[in-house]
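Supplementary notes for students who missed Thursday's class. We covered one full example, reproduced here. Read the sequence, then the structure, then the short commentary at the end.
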Amino acid sequence: MPAHGGLRSACVADTPLTVVGAGVVGLAVAARLAGRFPELLILERRERHGSETSSRNSEVIHAGMYYPPGSLKARLCVRGKHLLYELSERVGVPHRRIGKLIVAMQAEETAELERLLEQGLRNGVEQELVGADACRQLEPAEPAVAALVSPTTGIVSAHGLMDALLHEARGHGAMLQPRAELVGIERRDCDYRLEIRTPEGTETLTSERVVNAAGLDADRVAALAGIDVVAAGYRLHWWKGSYFAVTGRKARLVSRLVYPVPAHVSLGVHAVLGLEGRLRFGPDAEHLPERQLDYAVDESKRHAFAEGVHRLVPAISAQDLTPDIAGIRPKLQGPGEGFRDFVIAEEAARGLPGFVDLIGIDSPGLTSAPAIAEEVDRLLV
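Structure (token representation):
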């Protein structure tokens, strides 16, 4: 970490830009901006980058049909998808353009597929609505009455992607400081004084600009800067999602991603294929009002999971499921609340020039990460 410049002028900061959080979004921002801001600093409270939300998800490259036209989620997902495929091909990040089906299991669900088709077309998403016979040709184990086919949906190695982004950022001189938790922010005349807790104690440094990409605790970082997060609508809700894996020969029953029509706070328990061919189902959506960091998968959920899985793939039953991983998403949407978009805001109007908040970056955050970095690049002058 750069030493605190105690003898410097108050207007000469230790670093031109600090990115708080080394998840996929923070790393994408650092990779994009490191060339503009020499000695950019990335702060990460964990021992390794990408240890929280970014490494505990479905690793899906989303197409963009789920989000309201004109929203940041719609625009940045579509743009991010293209950038993510381009980056992965350029630097060799493991990925596959595997395709996805969103399936209607009953006739009354086809209206939702038609809505998603129209919405996706408005967002610029390539897709096609097919009937039961065409669906069976694509996925013989699926007893769907109709399906929305998304050929541009894919899967990517989240760790491979984050390693590539960090390598690119470091190549431009950026520095990653792990085990460094931001605990204080003070706006001064022309920079920010940051108080950072490390295993060795508390240190301070100054930064001309700050990007808050703190994921699960992005609202807490905004509050440290003096923002009333409740009044601003920045208060986050933690939602836990668990996964169960399919063991044995039945893991080969599905050859692409298969999703039900979306649920209220999630896209529903869906079939997820890993790059190595492993089949998982998940995530569910469990609200964590106390915001406890709990990654345990409750085995007692097996039978509830099995009902949803069996509906998608009748040949798979509870005994075929094994507890797998869990992840936690930072959502602005609380229980019973409607759609909430990403917050991507330069906070000069709140008296914090050069301070950018990235809050509520849930799905499709991984897909959108390169496009979010473009937005931050435009906001920082």
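Commentary. Residues 25 and 369 are 5 Å apart (CA to CA). The radius of gyration is 21 Å. If anything here is unclear, bring it to office hours.
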